[in-house]
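Please fill in the sequence for the structure shown.

STRUCTURE ENCODING:
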């Protein structure tokens, strides 16, 4: 079977929830826009607290980043803990770090509570140093997390080789809080839990406008309208429609993955044998993980949907040969791409543009845990009030300047880097 454009997670999750489009009028306590991890976590936690809820999705559950990502259940954020506190201050930064450090536990608790079959593994993640500078960065991250009591450990020498399955990595930061899953199955499981608690889910119902209606809101779709006291906008990087100011608060970037056929035999068994998901310290990083059937999944920043399949195959061959030459020639089967909401400071943004209206964006490629946390926090905030329910304060909406130019420059930089990798100029 040759390489084709197809999201592996969709193929591995045949039992995805089905739902009708909204027709006519509906009244609920809270209307959630977007059936990704954020929206569904919000809906689930609102339902648990007795609210009536509907979720409006423009396409189908998991259409956005939630159904397409690498499936790393990360602890913390991209930027190192000290930098988070430097940017946000000790109190706000410290609270955010504590919340995000505990975020994988929330994801795994939801999986257990609702019996979500998503091939979850709880053995941690490995951040892999590709050179001496990367190793120094990981050493520093390790110390910063250990100072905060996190169960992280820098693996070196034989322990590192054994855990990663490659001789090309000198050190790897093992974060035992984290793990991996099939993100489409997790998202679908959240949707089923929402339906199970009496939530209404509507597919193919893009929101086309949002209007104030007394103290509440009227959320209008192509085929119907929802009256709600409160609204959660959870459309994030996939926000559709000119009506939403949210899309001006991030700049979009892309991430692609390439998955092999299931790999068998001894050489394959030695790659990430502990089941951790991994990524390297390159500025244009490569992610590496196995799935439950032994496939090798490689990924990197950039729009794979705009690249020819031969280029993606050549890139995947190059990364695999660099890290895992013991595999010989690997057959690549699926490739897919998703969109990420980036912010210039690499931090997410929470908004409350009007009473009873909450929105979020800018997970910067870390949404499995962040979306689960923010969804729960939004629910707690709407049900109980009090800013302490939120992982960080809301802020005014602020347009990201020259967003188109930023996206274009990033994409050009990623493409050049990958071409350099294929030509062995960089690796
Ligand atoms: C390829 C890739 C790899 C990634 N890897 C990881 C990873 O390994 N770990 C990690 O933690 N994070 C990762 N991320 C980030 C993570 O996937 C996202 O941050 C997260 O899924 C965002 O979830 P969400 O629910 O906020 O938004 P989304 O999942 O994007 O959901 C938004 C939904 O809103 C819907 N929508 C948009 N506009 C409207 C409208 N007008 N009306 C109704 N519905 C609308 C969309 O159709 C979409 O379904 C990755 C992202 C990508 C793209």
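FILLED IN BY: designer on duty
SEQUENCE:
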């Amino acid at each position: 079977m040759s390489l084709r454009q197809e999201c592996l997670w969709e193929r591995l999750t045949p039992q995805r929830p089905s739902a009708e489009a909204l027709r006519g009028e509906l009244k609920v306590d809270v209307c959630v826009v977007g059936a990704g991890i954020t929206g569904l976590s919000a809906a689930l936690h609102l339902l648990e607290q007795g609210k009536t809820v509907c979720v409006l999705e423009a396409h189908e559950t998991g259409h956005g980043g939630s159904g397409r990502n690498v499936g790393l259940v990360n602890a913390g954020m991209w930027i190192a803990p000290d930098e988070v506190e430097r940017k946000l201050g000790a109190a706000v930064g410290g609270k955010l770090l504590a919340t995000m450090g505990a975020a994988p536990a929330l994801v795994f608790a939801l999986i257990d509570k609702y019996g979500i079959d998503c091939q979850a593994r709880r053995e941690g993640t490995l951040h892999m140093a590709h050179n001496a500078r990367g190793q120094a960065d990981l050493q520093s991250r390790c110390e910063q997390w250990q100072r905060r009591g996190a169960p992280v450990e820098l693996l070196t020498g034989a322990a590192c080789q054994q855990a990663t399955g490659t001789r090309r990595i000198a050190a790897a930061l093992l974060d035992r809080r984290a793990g991996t899953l099939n993100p489409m199955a997790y998202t679908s499981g959240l949707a089923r839990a929402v339906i199970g608690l009496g939530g209404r889910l509507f597919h193919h119902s893009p929101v086309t406008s949002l209007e104030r209606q007394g103290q509440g809101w009227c959320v209008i779709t192509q085929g119907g309208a929802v009256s709600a006291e409160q609204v959660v906008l959870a459309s994030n990087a996939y926000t559709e429609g000119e009506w939403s100011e949210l899309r001006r608060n991030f700049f979009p970037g892309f991430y692609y993955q390439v998955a092999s056929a299931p790999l068998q035999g001894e050489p394959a068994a030695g790659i990430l044998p502990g089941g951790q998901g991994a990524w390297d310290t390159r500025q244009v990083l490569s992610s590496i993980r196995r799935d439950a059937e032994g496939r090798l999944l490689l990924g990197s920043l950039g729009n794979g949907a705009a690249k020819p399949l031969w280029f993606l195959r050549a890139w995947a061959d190059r990364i695999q040969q660099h890290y895992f030459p013991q595999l010989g020639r690997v057959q690549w089967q699926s490739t897919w791409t998703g969109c990420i909401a980036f912010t210039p400071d690499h931090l997410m943004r929470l908004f409350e543009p009007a009473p009873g209206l909450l929105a979020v964006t800018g997970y910067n490629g870390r949404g499995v845990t962040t979306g689960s946390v923010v969804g729960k926090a939004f629910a707690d905030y709407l049900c109980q009030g009090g800013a302490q329910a939120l992982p960080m304060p809301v802020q005014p909406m602020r347009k990201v300047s020259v967003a188109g130019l930023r996206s274009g420059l990033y994409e050009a930089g990623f493409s050049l880097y990958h071409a350099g990798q294929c030509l062995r100029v960089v690796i």
